[in-house]
Each structure stands twice: as C-alpha cells, then as structure tokens.
C-alpha cells in the first residue's frame, strides 16, 4: 500500500476527543497491534488486547477515550469514542483513494453497440464489449475488458470489475459489485440421455440479481432452463462459488467461497453457508439456516437449523459423532473384550 | 426474458392436434404449472402434476392430446402429442432468438495474426486475439475477448464464449461449446523438489477435445506434461471443474460442477460424477461408473459401480454406515451397559 | 503437438555416451514406453519398467548408459547418463519452441496509462490494460487481455498469461507465472451484520507475491482487509484455488487444485495441501505439514504433521477409522449378539 497520511490527516478523519504524544512519521500502512511498525496506524478494537498496546511499534494508535496509559516516544495516541468506527472511517478514506471515482464516458477502445443505452453518468472502461440493447444505468462503472450481452440490464451505481461476463438478457440490480472474472448467465447444465448421447436441453431463462448484492471473483451463476435464476437483495457471495440453473437465493444470505448450489435449490432469506459446502438439487434451505464449512446439505432444512458434516446433521450431533468416531478403535477393543469375557464365563459356567 | 409470442405463434411452432379456449395475452415467459402467471406458457410434462393444471394461471398450456378438462377464461389449451417435445421446440425457437447467428467475418477490434487460418464462414468477435498458425473452422463463433493461442485448432461449428482462453497447440473438436471463462491448456501442476525448491517440470503436451463436448464456465483443463490431456466425444463438463494434466476422459461422460480430477486419471466412457466429487491421480474409473456428489474416488473402480462417500464406497454400504454413524452415541451406551452388567454378573458369581 | 525433430537433433540435445540402431522417422511426439508409437521419443526413467523397453514402438528411446538390449529395426537407442535429465533437456527445448520469447514493446491495441512505467525489455501484448502508476519490470511478458491495476508492480521476468487480473496496489515478485484467468487482489469477503443487512467492511490492503511463485488458472487471491495477503517465495499454487484475505502462506509450499484457505490463516514454509482440502480461518499450519486431498483442517497443526480426513486427523488414525467405519454393521451385530447372550445368561442363572 502506498497510502500516506500525516498524523494531522488521521486526526482530522477520526475526530479524537483527546490526544497524547506526537509523531513525525507519515502513516503508510495499517496493521494489528502486534504486527505494526513505525509508519503504521493501529487500533485497540477489543479490550482483551489492551496489554498489547504498551508493546506496539505503530506510530499512531486509535484507543478508547477511557484508555489509561502513555505513548512511547515518537508515538501518538488518539482517544476516540469507538476505535473500530474510527478505523472504518480511515479505511473508507483509503478506499476512495484506492478506487477513485472514474470519469463518466465510454473509452474509445470499448466496443459498444449503437443501440445500447448507456447513462450519461456511467463509465465504460477500456476494451469492454456492450452488445445490442443492453442498458447501463446511472453512475455504473464497467471497469475494463468486461462483456455485457444483448439486452442485459445493469442497475444504477453498480460496479463490474475487470473480466466480468454478463450474458444476454440477464438483469443486475443497483449497487451491485461483481468482482473480477464473475460469469453471470452461463448455460445451465441440462441434458437428456437419448440413444447413447447427451442431448442439450436449451437454457433460455436468465439470471436476475437484486440490489446491493456482491459476487466474488470467478464465481459462476447459470441462467435458468426457463424462467430465472435469482439472487435476492443484499446477499453476498464469495469467490469461486457455483450457482446452478433455476436456483433461488433469498435476501441477505452469505455464501462463502467454493460453495456449490445444485439446480432448482431454494435458499430462503439470511442463510449462511460456510466455505466448500454443497447443496443438493431441488431442496429448500429454510430461513436463517447456518451450515458449517464443507457441509453437504442433501435434504430440506427447517428454518434456523445449524448443521455441519457430510451429510449435514445438527452441529451438536455431528461434533459428538466426530469424537466417537475417533474412539472407534477403543470401542472395537471393548467389544472384543466383552466377547472374550462372555465366552470365558460360559466356559466356566458349563 | 423479453420473449414475445402470440398464441398463434405458439400454435404454429407446436402444431397441436386440437385447441381449447383462447387468450389474447402475448406470451412473454415460460414457467412451471404452479409458478406461471398471465402471459406465461406452461406444460404438463409429467402426469403426476395433472391436478395442477386446473389451478395454473398460465395463458397457454401444452397438454397431452388425451387430456380431459377445460381452460379457464382467457386461457388456451394446446393438445399435442408430447408436451415436453412441444416445449423443447418453443425453447429451441427462443434459443435462436437469444443467440442469433452472427454474421461471418473478423471484427475490426480483434487482433488476428497474419498467418492464422480463419474460415470465411467463421465469426471472430470484438477484442479477440488469434495467434500465429491458429486454425478456426467453418461457422465457428469466437464471441468476444477470447484468446486462441499459437497453432491451436478449433473445429467446425464450435462456439467460444466471452473470455475463453485456448492456449497454444490445443485442439478443439467440432460443435464444441466453451462457456465463458473456460481455460484450455494451462500448465499442468508438476514440480520436482530439488535442494529445497520446487523445480518446474516442463509441460509441453496439449489438450485434445472431441466433437460435441460442452465445457462450463471458468472450468480449467491443463495441458499434458507431454502427449495429451483428452476429453472424449460427447462428454459434458459443468462449471468450475478442474481437470489435471494427462487425464483421459472417455466419451459421453457427465462431470458436474466443481469436480476435481487429478493427474493421469482415466475415466472410461459414460462415467457420471456428481458435484464436488474428486478423483485421485493415476486411477481408472470404469465404464458407466456413477459417483454421488462430494464422493472421493481414491482407487480404481470396476465398470458400472455406483459409489458415494469419502472415501467412496458402494452406495448401499455408504448409506448404511451413515445411518449407523448417527447411532454411535447409542452404541457406546449399549457397550457401557454390557460392561456394567458383565462386571455385576462377575461380582455376584464370585 | 506439432514438434518435429530429427534423430540427429535429439542426439545433439541429449549428448548420448553411445547409440545403438538408427531411425529415419522424424520425432513428432513424446510418450511413455507402453503408449509410444512410430515418430515418438520415449525414455526409461524408472528401472522397474525395464521390461517394457523391448515392446515399445517409439522411434527413439533414451536409456541409461548400462542398459543391456538391442533396438528393434528402425529404432534408435540413445544411451545417456540420466534418461530423465536427458528428457528434461528435450522438453526444455520444446518449451522454448512452444513459448518463444516475445519481442519487447507495447502492442498498439493495448491500453496503457501515460504514467505507467514499462521496462524497455518488457512485452505488453494485445488488448491489455495497464493503469496509472503501474510498474512493469524487465523482460516481463504481459501476454494478452491482461489487466494490471493502478500502482500495481510486476517484478522482472514474470509472465502474466491471457485474461489475468492484477488489481490496484498489488505486488508481484520476480519470475512469477500467473496462468490464465488468475485474479489477484479481489476484495476480501468481510461484512458486518448491522440492522438486518450485511455492511461491507472496506478491504484496503493488498496482495504481495514473492519471487518464483506460480499460480494456476482461475485461482483467486483476495486483498487484505488492511495490511497484506502474502504468498512466500517459491510457493506453487494449482488451478481454482481460493485464498482469502489476510492469509499468509510461507515459502516453497505446494497447494493443489481447488483448495480453499480461509481468512487470516497462516501456512508456514513447505506445507503441502492435497486437492480440494480446506483450511479454516485464523489457524496456523506448521512448517512442512502435509494434508491429503479433501482434508478439512480446522485447528492449528504442529510442524511436520501428516493429516487426512474431515476433520483432519493423523493419517494412520484416519485410515484405521475408515476401515473400522466400514465394519460398523458388523460391530452393531456383535453388540446385539452380546446383549442377547447376556440376557439369556441372566435368564438361565435366575
């Protein structure tokens, strides 16, 4: 990171109630208390790390207003109402700097169909392709080398990062972020086995993505066989996730990396799936279900369930079985001993 | 979907034996019986849903010729020989509309080597790169932002969707569809550990893909160390699948999403692998083997096997063990009880 | 492969101690002893395959200097100090031919910011985007349709293959190879659940990749929340791997395909993770740990551990449990029998 703030900049952003000490270092990085060195900003976000403050080598430390202690020489303490909130303000400033607002307009190297409708406030970056009939909303940022297919719609304030593909007819909501390499609207995986060959079932539906959705790098979402594959408002999806055709995902779900969701599965609102979990086809995962990493969900789950394991079962049972599994060698020995004892008992009693 | 058919259009496509009722709605979507609303086409594909016909709100319903029942007001019944076939005809029509045949020729923004051989009937879309010596067959559609490397060959009637990468020397058959973001011919993962470092083993083979293969979005297929990685005719591969170097996949296989196949594994013809399954290196999976989702195949499998679980075992055994596993707490209790009873018995007999 | 060598070319490259026989075939391929046909080069790399030499149909065979046996008619034996080393020399020659050194310079179709710093010896291929402030080192090959974001740095002699995305501020070392579709610096997956919605935690760190790292096709590496996600020198990463924000990977690790590593996990040096393994967040995997394919690492592991299974446990225990698991039906029967016998014994003794 080539960030550079003065101590005064940080104070202006975080609005401390008071300060202790001083530093002449410019702030060029952010780091945890224990990892920080001169030129870093750090913070005490969790009181349990209070003792680490004395040892930190950061030049500026964000601390709760009631913190007791003095800075080292060349170190500045900023005492704020909430160090986490203060840090978030610094990060938001850095984010603006990392990702400056692009100027509106279409880059001359982009290939834009004559009848695509591009809002005047939108930015179409270098080497993008926008096909016929596509609609690009206000302040949308189509960053670079992005493909937007025929009649696709991208809602206001969305951001399509480099290499994103949005296939024909798909609809992206407002304030959606698609990380690099995302594919929206690839064909669903549907075939009929006819006379020894897999005949393709046409996939003529689309994908509809709600407002405030974020989708991680190289994730793929298939278009529906017909009708639509849907991702509800506010849902966040991590990298390398596979979402098959006709899946319906509710609002405010969290889908961690490398999850796979099979065709026609339904996730109700606020479902959380840990990394590498899998969901079988045609099942319904109830509202607020939580599934651990690598869980294999192969049947309907009632709202509010918390499951782990493969096949996924309630977390407490799964943990207990994991422990008992490791005791199987012992159990086999115990049963063997019982069998011997019983055989001896029989012998001696006969 | 911005489909729009009149009822007369649908009748012309599906050639019904008879009709009942009438609708003035234009048909703008396809949906299942229970989900359909006015303006939708629906169908009765499976007799077990017969009772849902009475309640459907679709404007046009495809029904078997012997269906008994009357349409609601403003609803049209089309009685056809096979509703599924009739629907497929409508979908095929929509598919043509979704993906109109592109005009042949090379887009001016594409970067095509002087000595690449492009058939006159092929289409090279915007911002594609075709390198020296590459051969693009008749009616091939290289859609947009695609890379075709040196001396690679793409067979007649194939379709490379946006962002596909076909590396140097790889060979793609006829009527092959590569979904967006597919990578063909990345280096195999081969190193030798020499003096504390991993030295790269050159990967100088290629990938050869048979006719009528389809490969899903962001799937990766590595080039062979030497010789070739092969995908047999008619095999269909889903999204985010990894196929390592020197793998040999037979004809008419189905490989679901997120499967990983390790180096030098062989799949014979008609193998079906469920989502997120894994295949170890250097093993052979016999003809017609079926493996469930998330199965871990770590040894040769005889033709026709049906396995699940990790490590994969015959499906009936795996299911039985899954049930017994959940009864482990009970089994431990039962063994504890036996031990107590035997200890009591001993005590009382001594 | 459209390789073509004469037998004399192969001899010149491999410098044999002696030769037996002769061939007039041109060498157009490489294959294993059993698979080779006329026009192929093969080799005896492992003495246990010695008996396969007599049956090979290869035109040229690399053999150890002390090999006893005569070539078939039209077959040439080259007796060399080390056949594997000799083969590697041939492969290295093919590699140069497969991937000829590109001429330095910026392709006219690339979009390069005025203030990007591109070394005079670097190659920027067609349709690449290099943003403001980016630094491209000596002899770097940015192949085609690659994106290098603002202020990103690519070290000397690195090679970015088609479709690679390196986001703003990320740092790539020297002699790094990024296979097609790699994404470096996508946002980490971090949200806070506030009033029923997931609020994005800004991800303002970067990714720092050491020298001699290789990263497989469509793999994704997220930028840190703040500070950096790091990949140590000499580490090799396969295809479709997910590395989350703030992960720290040591030097000379091997990460096989489809592995997922969760946020803030640490891998020390020389860790080896089999395909589809998963690592939980915030844990430390000690130096030299080996984990089998599909292992689920959910707790710290001491240096040198060898684990398999999910949750991962020491390999010997995991294997024993896998065997005992398959004997569960038997164990349940044995316990049932014991219960009956004890009930009978009680009855008869009462």
Structural class of chain A: alpha/beta
Estimate nothing, just give the exact number of structural domains of chain A.
3
Report how far apart the termini of chain A are.
84 Å
- The proportion of residues forming helix of chain A, as a percent range, comes to 10-25%
Number of strands of chain A: 38
CATH class of the largest domain in chain A: Mainly Beta
Shape of chain A: flat
Number of helices of chain A: 4
Structure description:
Three copies of one chain form a homotrimer. The first copy, chain A, folds into three domains: 7-98, MurE/MurF, N-terminal domain (Udp-n-acetylmuramoylalanyl-d-glutamate--2,6- Diaminopimelate Ligase, Chain: A, domain 1); 105-316, Hexapeptide repeat proteins (UDP N-Acetylglucosamine Acyltransferase, domain 1), CATH 2.160.10; 317-349. By secondary structure, chain A is α/β, with parallel strands linked by helices. Chain A has four helices and 38 strands. In chain A, the strands form five sheets. A twelve-stranded mixed sheet of chain A has the order 6-9-12-15-18-23-26-29-32-35-37-38, with helices on one face. Chains in contact: A-B, A-C, B-C. At the A-B interface, β21, α3 and α4 of A face β2, α2, α3 and α4 of B.
Q: Any key phrases for this structure?
A:
homotrimer; 350 residues; alpha/beta; Udp-n-acetylmuramoylalanyl-d-glutamate--2,6- Diaminopimelate Ligase, Chain: A, domain 1; UDP N-Acetylglucosamine Acyltransferase, domain 1; 3 domains; twelve-stranded mixed sheet; ten-stranded parallel sheet; 38 strands; 17% helix
